[in-house]
Each structure stands twice: as C-alpha cells, then as structure tokens.
Write a structure and sequence with these properties.
1393 residues; alpha/beta; 25 helices; globular; protein serine/threonine phosphatase activity; metal ion binding; EC 3.1.3.16; PH domain leucine-rich repeat-containing protein phosphatase 2; phosphoprotein
C-alpha cells in the first residue's frame, strides 16, 4: 500500500495554521468544530442520540494536510496524530430550533507528534495543566506527565489485534477511534454528575417551623447526607449549620412558590425552609434530597464519577457510615484525598475497588471503625503491616491484584470472617490464615495453587466455605487421617484434577467439581446435599454412607454406563441430571422414587423405561436422543404431576394414553415429540391432556391431524407440526383461542388454515408448502407480527391480501425466479443457500444473517451469522456493513489472515458508540479462488469471534472450521483473561457480563474481551457437500454429526436450515436460534465454460476483452433461484395500501438483450479466464432481502403509468415491494468509452500487490440516500446534481428528519443506523438507480450532441445488428449508441408531457 493512502483518515480536519519542524516532535492544528459533531460527555443527554447515530460524532471535514505535514508523517511509522478535545459540554438538552445544535462549541486540536512525545511536552506546548484520557466513552483519567499519548494509542491498537505498523499509524489517525480512546486537554464538566455530587446556591432560608425566624439570603449546600446552611450570606466561612437528612423528610411548601421544607429525623428534629428562585432549581434539589431521605443507612455512592478526591463538603456528613468510591481515580493528596478519609468518625464500609491505586493506602488503616473494606483491582503488590490496626474488620476484599503473600499482622484480625484473595498470584494457601479463628469464607479462585493440602483446611477451625476455582489444581492430598470437620462448601471447578478423594471432609454439604478430568470421585455422604460433577470422565461415583440428605445431583457429560445403587437408596433426591452419558437403562426404583421431581436423562442409550408401579411426584422428564421404542403404559396416569415431557429424537411409534378412563387428570403442559415415527393415530391420545400449552410433533409421519381432536386442546399456545406430510391444518384450530405460535413448514399444505382471526396469534410459519391462495377474514388481529410464506412457489397474493397484511412487522414472501442472461451458469450452479432465524421464547430477534451468493466478481460468496445475545442493534449493524468492509479489505491485501483480521477489527471500530457497551459474536465465511492459482479450485476462509460456528460436511463427516471463544471451552483464552486480572464470576463470565473472550463490540471490557478473530482457510474439493453456519444456541442443542445428517436428508438448503432451527427448539432451546446452510456443487462436472468465439485474422494471443461500460440492472443480483431461501420481507412501517408501482423502471427486472451488449466469452468459476479482467468491474453486492421503493425515493423520475406492470413485482398503490440486494446497496453509473487494455496495464503497474491479485478500483464519489449508496464518477457529479432523476439523491431527508449532505465519503454505519429496524434482522432498503440513468447530458448541451450524432451514427430502425465480439468492439460507437438511446428516450418523454 502506498504511504499516502495511509493518511486518508487525516484528511478530514479543519486546518487554520500549521508549521512542522522535522526536529520538533509536536505540531498543533486547531479547528473549531460544532458540538453536534463531537461525542458528548458520558452521562449527558447526547449519549442516547450518539448511540443511535453510530460514528456520526466523528469529525468529517475535508480540508487536507499540507505536503510538509504529510511528508513528515510518511517519514516514520512512529509518528502520528493525536486528537485533543477540550471545552465544556453541557449535557442538558439544547433549546428547540434549527440553531440549537450549534450553540455549543467544542475545541478540537490535532497534534502531530511521535511515540516519544510525553504529556509534559504537550502541556508545555499547549500551556495547559494536564491531559485526560477517556476509554470507551467511560471514565476520565488525568495522565501522568511521563505518559506518552501516541504510544498509548499504538499500544491500545496492538492489544486489540493490529500488527502492521503502517496500519497502526493509519488507524491511530482515524476519527472513528475516538469512540474507543480519546484525549481531552481539559476535564469536561458534566452537570448531571455535579448534581449528584454537590448542589450549591444562594437562596432565601428560614429556620424552624414558627414565624419567629425571618427569611434570609444564605449559601446552601446539599452534599452527601446533609443539608449545609452557611451563617453568612454569600460566604462559606464561619459557622455552618448541618442538617442530617437520612430518615428525615423533604416536603413541598404549598403556601410559597418553589419552596421546600427539609426536616431531620429523631425526636429533636430540626427544620429548614428553602425558597428557590426557579422551577429548575426546585426540581433538582427536590429530586436529590428525596433520594437521601429515603435511605435506611447513611450511604453515599460516588462510584464511576472519575473523581480524584471526594468533595470537601462531604466531611460535614459525620453520620456517614457507608462510602462507595468504586471506579474512580482517587489520589492520596488533596483536601478530599485518601489521607483525609479518617476524618469520617463513623465510617463502617469503604469501597475503593478499581481505582488504579498501585499501592495499599495506609491511611485507610487509621479508620478503626471499618467493618468492610474493598480494595479489589488496584494492582497492589503488598499489604502493609498496619492492616492489623483494623480490629473491627469483618470483610476484606483484595481480589484482582498482584499479591503473592500476606503480612503476619493480618492474623491478628480476630473478627475477620470473609477474605477475598481471588485472581492474585498466590502459589499456595497462606499460612497466616491458620490464625484467623473467625474466618468462615475464603475465596482464592484464579490463583496458582496446584496442590491442596487438606491438613491446612483442618487447622482452620472456623472455615466453612472455600473457593479454589481456576487454579490449575492437580492434586488434593490428605497426608494424615485427620478429619476436616468444619468445611461445608468446596468449589473446585475448572481445574486439572484426575482423581478426587474427599472422604475425610465429613461435613461436606456442597461440592462443585465441574470441568475437570476426573475419572474417580469419592465423597463422604453424611451431610452431602448438592453435588455438581458434570463435564468430567467419571465412570462411577463412590459415596459412603448413602447420602440421605442429597437433594440435587448433576452427573451429566460423563462416561457413566450405569447408575450406582446408592442413587436409588437416597431418599431425598429431587433433581437428577445424567444426560450425555452411556446409560442403557434406568433402575426401576429410580422412577418409583417418592422424592424425584426432575429427571434429565437425554442423550444416552436407553431402549426402554421400567413401568411405574405407583404414583410418583415426577414433574419434569427429559428423555430426548435415546433409542426408546415405546413409553410405559402407565406413565401419564401414574405421574399425575408431570408438566414437562421431552422424548424427541427417539423411535416412538405411539404414545401412552393419558388415563385409564374417559376422565383424565393429566396436568401435562409441554410435550415435545419431534423426530419420532408417530402417525395421525397418536392425535387421539392427546385429547386427555387438556392443559397442554406447547405441543411439538415436527418431523414425524403425520398424514393428517383429526379435526375433532385438535378442538379439544383449547389451552394450546404453541403448535409445531413441521416436517410431516400434512395437506391441511384442521379448521378446528380456530377453537384454540390462546394459540400464539403456529409452525407448520415443510409439509404439503395447500389451503391456508383459519388462524388469522385468533385473538392472540403472533407468529405463523407456513413456508416450504404448496399454498396456492389465502382466504382471509374481513379484518386481522393486530397481534400478528410475523408471517412466513416463503417456499410456496404457486402462491399468488392479491392486493386486498396485501392491504390486510399491512400491519405485520415481518412478512416473508417469495420473489418470482428470474435470472439475467448468463447468470444461471454463474455462481448459482456452484453454491446456493438457505437460512432461518427464530426468536424462540424471546421478545426480540438478536440474530442476523448475511448471505451473498455473488460476492465481488460473481464467482465468490460471503456468508455470516451475528449473535448479539441480548441486544439486536450490534448484529444488525454488522449484517449491514461487514460485507462492505470485507470487500474493501480485499483491495488492500490478499493474505487471508490479514484481510479477515482487518475486516473484523475495522467492523469493531465502525460500531462507534453502539459498540462501547454492546457486543456480538460474529462468524464470516468467504468462498474464493486462491489469488496465486487462478485456475485452481475454491478455498473457504472462515473467521470468527465469540460462539458462532461453521461446520463443513466432507465425505459425509463434519469438519469444524471455527473456534469457540468461550472461557469454558478454551484453555488459552482462560489463561489470557486470568493473566490480565479480569474478575471471572462463578458462572464463568468476564466481569459477570459475557462468557465469550472475543467479541465485536463490548469495548469497555478491553483488554479482557478482544475483537481479533480466529482465521482458517480450507481448500474446497468435490467431496465437500455443504456448509452449516449457526449461533451458540443451535450447536448447544444439535451436535455436529446430527446437523450434518439432518442437512443430508433435506436437499433444499432453506428447508434444511429451518429444520435445524426447529430441532434446536424441540430439544429445549428457548433463545434465539439462527442457521445458514450453503449447498456446495464444486467439481469438474460443474464446468460451464463456453468455447472461444472464432474470429478470422485475430491473434489468439491478442489483448484480453475490455470491460464493457454497462451496469448490471438493479434486479440482476436480486433474483436467486427459488430454492435459495431468500424472501422479500415487508416492513410494518409501510402499509400494504401504499405498495405500488410508482417507482417505475427503478425496480425493473427485465433482462438485457443478447445483442451488441451481450456479455463476453463466459468462463466458469472452476476455470476462470487467465486474465485478471472480468466482464466489468462490479461493486460489492449484498444479500437479497426486503426493499420498499417509494415514488419520492425513485431515481428515474418516471410515473407508474409510463411502464407496464413488471413481472415479479406486486404493486397497487404508492409504494412497491421487490427483492433487492441487501440494505446498503452499492452500484455504479458510468459513461464514456470502455477502458482500454492500456488502462488495464496502467492500473496493473500501480498495483501494490506483488502476487498479482488485483481488483480494479474506480474513482468514485459516494453519496448517502437514505440507506442506499450511489457511486458516480467524479466528473459526472455536477451533472447528476442537475438531473431531475438524481437531484433528489443529494441532500435526501432521512427517516429521523435530518438531511444528508453530499460528501466525498460516507460511513456505512450511518446508513444502517438510519434505516427502520425490523425484528427479523433486516430493514427496508431504498430504491436502486435505473439503468437508463447511466448517461446524463446537461440540457444546455443536448442540441449540440444531437447535431454531432446525426453526422456520426444515424439511428436505423430494424432488427438489432449482429453480435460483435467484445475484443474488437469500437468504444466510440458504443458511446454514440448509448447517448443516442438516451436522447431518444428523453424526447419521447417530453412528447408525452
């Protein structure tokens, strides 16, 4: 890459005056920037707006650096640019009006410096006191004079994954980076923070409830827990009157305007009346005082305020007992520093965690009243001996530091009961703890203890609870026979234990030993109540004596072939989980247990269940993934309390009756029967379960469902009958008044069921059926928000039907198959895809899918899955932008690890403020040719972060391609996160937020959670059948092998993806689930090359065919085959009554003729042409999805009456629905002659890629048009602005009322964020440019052009001329022909007018 290209982000600043000296490392460029273009201070009202607008807050001015500055930067990669922000940003909402956003000004200066430039040098040059650092829009920290800002930026970028020094220099200058790391020359003032910290003012004050005292002007403060009134007007000197407010009252005085009465608690309560000047002051004081008086303890919470010291007036609150200073930057010195904290005479609890202290503040040891002290995550190496002064201390938290030993004085804290030493560097349990006779809880997770001596625990006479998770424990030794009598709870999760004998701990009640390597486990059963031993290698568990107190036991994911006898002898077992073992039978005594309420025995080898001899209290029974051929006959009338039964993925041919008589007492509510051999005769046996709410009978052998039986299930809420052979859904389904979900895809249903008038219906999925028409009632219920009708090739919808569907949030319909000339022989013969997204029992869909069958040069593809877990914003942004980022990165590098890593890192940066607190797992798959071997087969490059996975089916076997970045599944990631001193909670989540160690977004968790992806490239071969992409929820329930077998049995990728999601839900998944299935047809038998055109007198070694100046029609990339699983989705924001054809030819899907404009010699993807030039340069085209075209967004300016109805387009009003390439579509408008071979050679000489992989880059200008990108040659931009067909594209109003100004660059994230949201993961895209708008002739030049054309190429009516080979086509004739066609069409339109 040329060095100059690295400076592109630097070209967006306003430079007033600048001079650079090569000997000087500091240069300042100052510019005044509108406050609306700057990121607000955290906590301000601007945060919400900025979060929606993504990276809009970044500066986008277009003044360039001078040549001297650029030369200075290019001289050394250790030189760069630091943005310094300053000024005061008021977080209060600005006044209304068009000029409100420009009233506040923020000072922005660009400082050219090197990595050796210190803060002291910058401050001296700028004449400021100090610099402040803000990470991820969070806290502000004052930098030390010796710190180096540019080096800090470089270190930050290197930590998240950047490696190339030149790329680091480029990214450091990118304005988007300010959302992650930002420098201030002054500490920004946050009025909201000041309000919660200190309120002050001069108001009229009166003391007491009687009229004896007069009103007087006094200085009044509200700080901490007290109201402070000065005795002298306008002064805080002299006597101060203190009024404690905790437990008191604050009331409105109705006799006076804006007046409050403050009263303290107790029998000698005092009262002050304060009369405020304005309503705003009154409300502010009332709000803050109300919080104080409502407290039950004297607590002041000043956490997350970026404080260096507490307010000096806080020391007047002498009743303060609890002080929270977590997440600040407290210093020792200063009036409110840590040295003055002993002034609080009654302080009992002090929290100083996450303050970057570095050393233990010895002044804290002088607060003798302390009972609780938290100094976690401060980087401390030692604990001073003065800790022994805190004789009242009961709880001490020192987690997340660098401690390796404790002082002997700590042993003198007789009242210490809880000690936190987790995530330090202790190699063993400190011996000083033996002297702590009162300690009953010890937390030492995440240390380096490899050996546990049980004798040490025996000497701690009061110790009951020990946490030794994540220590790398290998041995637990017991040298003597001495019993450990006091320990009741022991946590040994996530270690390396192979055997564990704890029989000497005779009082053990709870044991956690999950995720070890245990082959043998021996325990004492005297007091054992809870045992968690999943994910080990246990073949048996020895407990003696019989644990009669045991209530819960988890032995799942082990190697058990049978259950020990003591399990049946235990009298109080209520919950037993033995799933994912090798059990072939369950003891009869177990099912007859009078205590067992929940039994999970799925994924075993059970062939039958013993009969129930008596009534049992069983409530939950999970037997999925076994080999059961039948269930006990007495199951339902012996287990009358059974509410949940899952027997999916077995071999059941029938189910037992609900009762022995006609009257049933069944309480069953959820029944899952998916993946068996059940037929329609089983429906009669369901009638007795009249409390049934959820019924899944997918993928059985049902030919019908008896109407009379379905009417009995009146309480049914969710019904899944997918994958059967049903031809109809009984009309009696209308009797199920509570039904909200009906899923019946992949059947033979031809008649739409009578469900649209159900009062609570929300989701209907009838895809992949044989529907021909829909008979609708006069009105539909407003609750229906998702309707999937894809895969019904014969379905025709009338305009009335569309009108009734106008309120549906997500409507999925098929686009009629239509394919451009030659397209059917392109990439669609090599691969096609289908996808499915299901929200499950969640209210929103947080999974999004990217699928592009024709990516880049049409012989590549890109697929992705993005899972936001609990947020839907980040997955949508990634879905809309990641393909574009990949397309751009491919222009800069051909190394898979480089362009994939940069794609993820750039996408992470482009998330802007949305990515500060929110994140998502991401998986991206790219199918391509190896650039070094153009005649080779394809390769598949996979990159991922988080828990989304990709599996390739090769020779019928699954081949995992991705890596799961979960703390539980990756030892390397666990060690890395531990080394960076992150706090990992008991559920294995980083800071209690996420169990993934790598995500896109969640930048506030850096450096623990990183965006750097795992990258792998796998050459594809003819044995590769298909590719499966899925999120965490899919592969948690469906194994790799089952997923492969499932897809093999279903040839249609869309139906296969739906089946995968349906199976996951039937197996117990309640979260969002998403799947993409890509069918691969890569082999020599797929060759579609055409023989070369014979031409007389033409050298076969002549120049390659030149690119034609023809833009593919907008409809071209949006017409996949019907089996591709793509559907148009109608957004609820567009009523169906507005669906029309006013877009005219904008949405035309007519195919180009095969005349003179025909495509050149076609080469298949397996054998691409030896040249590097394709038919024409093609910008990135996105996944077909929904689009709403409106007449006011149309680019051609034609009325609907000018065009005949378009095939495959539904129109009946003012808007039109048609399938287009997804969301942020990019396309080109070009004019002029075709590029000559000489131009190609020129471009090739300028290429920076020695390996020969080159993608032609055109000089374009990009303009935003409400979610669409219009790429136009620079010389045509002025004419396009004048054209009536395109003038509306420049300065287009967006959905929120703002106006997009024409710019030379535009961030894709803005377009994605401005588009209307959809719960399906897609949003409405705007119209595409009409092909007729390729050529624009200004009106003033039309006459001249007409005269020139008459003399050069007269238009002769008649049949099209014979085909001319592209290699000998005259580019001048091309231009003349195109301009003539343009002018002729323009004249015709004028005549109509």
């Amino acid at each position: 890459m040329q060095p100059r290209a690295l400076l592109s982000p630097l070209l967006s600043v306003c430079v007033l005056r600048c001079s650079v000296d090569a000997s000087n490392s500091v240069c300042v460029l100052r510019c005044s920037v509108d406050a609306s273009n700057c990121l607000p201070v955290p906590g301000g009202c601007g945060d919400r707006n900025m979060k929606r607008n993504g990276s809009r807050g970044c500066v986008t001015r277009k003044t360039r650096f001078g040549s001297r500055e650029r030369d200075w930067l290019k001289g050394d990669a250790q030189r760069g640019c630091v943005c310094l922000y300053g000024g005061t940003v008021d977080p209060q909402p600005p006044a209304s009006g068009p000029q409100a956003s420009s009233t506040l000004q923020a000072d922005l200066r660009l400082v050219l410096c090197s990595t050796t430039t210190t803060v002291e040098e910058l401050c001296a040059q700028r004449e400021v006191e100090g610099l402040y650092l803000q990470l991820h829009g969070d806290l502000l920290r004052r930098l030390d004079p010796s710190e180096r800002p540019l080096q800090m930026v470089y270190d930050y970028l290197a930590a998240i994954g950047y490696q190339d020094p030149l790329l680091v220099q480029k990214e450091a200058a990118n304005s988007d980076l300010s959302c992650m790391i930002r420098f201030y020359s002054e500490c920004p003032v946050n009025a909201d923070q000041q309000e919660r910290t200190l309120l002050t003012g001069v108001f009229s004050v009166r003391k007491g409830k009687t009229q004896l005292h007069k009103w007087a002007e006094r200085q009044v403060l509200l700080c901490g827990t007290c109201l402070i009134v000065a005795s002298v007007k306008d002064s805080l000197t002299g006597k101060m009157h203190i009024l404690p407010l905790v437990g008191g009252k604050v009331e409105e005085v109705k006799r006076r305007q804006h007046c409050l009465m403050f009263s303290s608690a107790g029998p000698q309560a005092q009262t002050y009346f304060v009369n405020f000047d304005t309503l705003a002051d009154y409300q502010r004081w009332h709000r803050q005082a109300s919080k104080v008086v409502s407290q039950t303890i004297s607590l002041v919470d000043l956490s997350c305020y970026s404080l260096e010291e507490v307010p000096e007036y806080l020391f007047y609150s002498q009743d303060l007992t609890h002080l929270n200073l977590r997440h600040n930057f407290m210093s020792l010195q200063g009036p409110g520093g840590l040295l003055n904290l002993p002034r609080f005479s009654q302080l009992k609890s002090l929290n100083l965690s996450h303050n970057r202290l570095g050393v233990f503040p010895e002044s804290v040891c002088e607060i003798l009243t302390l009972t609780e002290l938290n100094l976690s995550c401060n980087g401390m190496n030692t604990v001073p001996a003065q800790i022994g002064n805190l004789q009242s201390l009961q709880t001490l938290s020192l987690d997340g530091n660098q401690l390796s030993f404790l002082p002997e004085e700590l042993g003198g804290l007789a009242q210490l009961s809880s000690l936190g030493l987790s995530f330090n560097n202790f190699p063993h349990i400190p011996g000083v703890l033996d002297r702590l006779s009162g300690m009953d809880k010890l937390a030492m997770a995440g240390n380096r203890v490899e050996t546990l001596e049980l004798g040490i625990l025996a000497r701690m006479s009061h110790l009951k609870n020990i946490d030794l998770r994540l220590n790398g424990l290998r041995w637990v030794k017991s040298e003597a026979l001495e019993a450990v009598k006091q320990v009741t709870q022991l946590d040994l999760r996530d270690n390396h234990l192979a055997t564990l004998d704890l029989s000497s701990i005779c009082s053990l009640e709870t044991l956690h030993c999950q995720r070890n390597q245990l082959r043998a486990l021996t325990l004492s059963g005297f007091t054992l109540r809870t045992l968690h031993a999943s994910s080990n290698r246990l073949t048996t568990v020895n407990i003696y004596p019989v644990p009669n107190q045991l209530t819960q036991m988890d032995l799942s994911r082990n190697l058990l072939e049978y259950l020990p006898d003591w399990v049946c002898d235990s009298r109080k077992v209520e919950v037993l989980d033995v799933a994912h073992n090798f059990l072939s039978e369950l003891p009869a005594r177990l099912l007859s247990s009078l205590s067992l309420r929940k039994l999970l025995a799925g994924n075993n080898r059970l062939q039958r269940l013993p009969d129930l001899l008596d009534h049992v209290p069983l409530e939950v029974l999970d037997l999925q993934h076994n080999k059961l051929g039948e269930l006990p006959e007495s199951l339902f009338y012996k287990a009358l309390n059974l509410k949940y039964l899952n027997v999916s993925a077995n071999a059941l041919e029938t189910i037992p009756p609900s009762s022995q008589s006609e009257e049933s007492l069944s309480t069953l509510q959820e029944l899952y029967l998916t993946g068996n051999k059940l037929n329609e005769n089983c429906a009669a046996l369901l009638v007795g379960h009249q409390n049934l709410r959820v019924l899944h009978m997918a993928y059985n052998q049902l030919l019908s469902f008896p109407a009379s039986k379905l009417s009995k299930l009146e309480l049914l809420e969710e019904l899944n009958l997918s994958g059967n052979k049903l031809k109809t859904i009984p009309s009696t389904v209308s009797s199920c008044k509570r039904l909200h979900t009906l899923i019946a895809h992949s059947n033979h249903i031809s008649v739409f069921p009578e469900i649209l008038n159900l009062p609570e219906i929300k989701l209907v999925d009838l895809s992949c059926n044989e529907l021909t028409e829909i008979l609708l009632p006069d009105s539909l219920t407003a609750t229906l928000h998702e309707l999937d009708l894809t895969g019904n090739s014969s379905l025709l919808l009338e305009h009335k039907t569309l009108n009734l569907f106008s309120h549906i949030t997500t409507l999925k319909l098929d686009q009629k198959p239509a394919m451009a000339t030659g397209e059917s022989l392109g990439s669609s013969t090599l691969w096609n895809h289908g996808y499915s997204e299901m929200s499950g029992q969640r209210n929103k869909l947080c999974v999004s899918v990217l699928a592009v069958d024709r990516f880049g040069d049409s012989v590549e593809a890109a697929y992705g899955v993005f899972d936001g877990d609990r947020n839907e914003e980040v997955p949508r942004l990634l879905q809309c932008t990641m393909g574009d980022v990949l397309s751009e990165e491919l222009l800069h590098s051909s190394v898979d690890s480089v362009y994939m890593s940069n794609t993820f890192l750039t996408s992470h940066r482009k998330l802007g403020m949305a990515g500060q607190k929110l994140g998502a797992s991401a998986l991206l798959c790219y199918i391509h040719h190896e650039p070094s071997e153009l005649g080779s087969y394809f390769s598949l490059t996979v990159a991922n972060v988080g828990s989304c996975q990709a599996v390739l089916c090769r020779d019928g076997q699954p081949l995992p391609l991705s890596k799961v970045f979960s703390l539980e599944q990756s030892t390397e990631e666990m060690d890395r996160v531990k080394l960076s001193k992150a706090i990992i909670t008991e559920d294995n989540k980083v800071s209690g937020v996420t169990c993934c160690s790598r995500l896109l977004g969640c930048s506030y968790l850096s450096p623990w959670v990183l965006p750097k992806p795992w990258v792998r490239t796998e050459p594809l071969c003819s044995q590769d059948e298909f590719l499966i992409l899925g999120n965490r929820a899919l592969f948690e329930r469906v194994s790799y092998q089952e997923a492969v077998c499932t897809v093999q049995a279903v040839r249609d990728p869309r139906a296969a993806a739906k089946k995968l999601c349906t199976l996951a839900q039937s197996y117990g998944c309640r979260d969002n689930v998403g799947a993409v299935v890509v069918s691969l047809h890569i082999g020599e038998d797929n060759c579609t090359c055409e023989p070369p055109h014979a031409s007389t007198g033409t050298d076969p070694r002549g120049p390659p065919p030149t690119p034609l100046p023809v833009t593919a029609p907008p409809g071209d990339p949006a017409t996949p085959s019907s089996s591709s699983g793509i559907a148009s989705e109608f957004n609820s924001e567009t009523s169906a009554s507005e669906v029309g054809s006013e877009a005219g030819s904008t949405a035309s899907d007519e195919h180009p003729s095969t005349g003179p404009m025909a495509r050149p010699e076609r080469r298949c993807s397996l054998h691409p042409a030896a040249t590097l030039w394709g038919p024409h340069p093609v910008l990135f085209q996105r996944q077909p999805s929904c689009a709403t075209f409106s007449s006011n967004q149309s680019d051609n300016g034609l009325d609907s009456d000018d065009e005949a109805p378009l095939e495959g387009v539904i129109s009946n009003g003012s808007k039109l629905e048609v399938e287009v390439d997804i969301h942020c579509c990019a396309f080109q408008i070009r004019s002029g002659p075709a590029a000559s071979p000489k131009d190609h050679n020129l471009d090739k000489t300028r290429s920076d890629y020695p390996n020969g992989k080159m993608r032609r880059q055109n000089s374009v200008v990009v303009s935003a048009t409400n979610g669409c990108l219009l790429a136009v040659c620079g010389r045509e931009i002025s004419d396009l602005k004048k054209s009536p067909s395109t003038s509306s594209l420049f300065g287009k109003k967006l959905s929120n009322g703002s106006v997009v100004a024409p710019e030379d660059s535009h961030n894709l994230i803005e377009v994605a964020l401005e588009a209307p949201k959809k719960k399906s993961g897609y949003f409405t895209a705007p119209a595409q440019q009409d092909p007729e708008d390729q050529l624009v002739v200004p009106p003033s030049l039309e006459q001249d052009v007409r005269e020139q054309l008459r003399g050069q190429s007269p238009m002769v009516p008649g049949p099209p001329p014979p085909f001319t080979p592209p290699s000998i086509r005259d580019p001048t004739a091309e231009l003349v022909c195109n301009i003539s066609l343009y002018l002729e069409g323009r004249s015709n339109s004028e005549m109509v007018e």
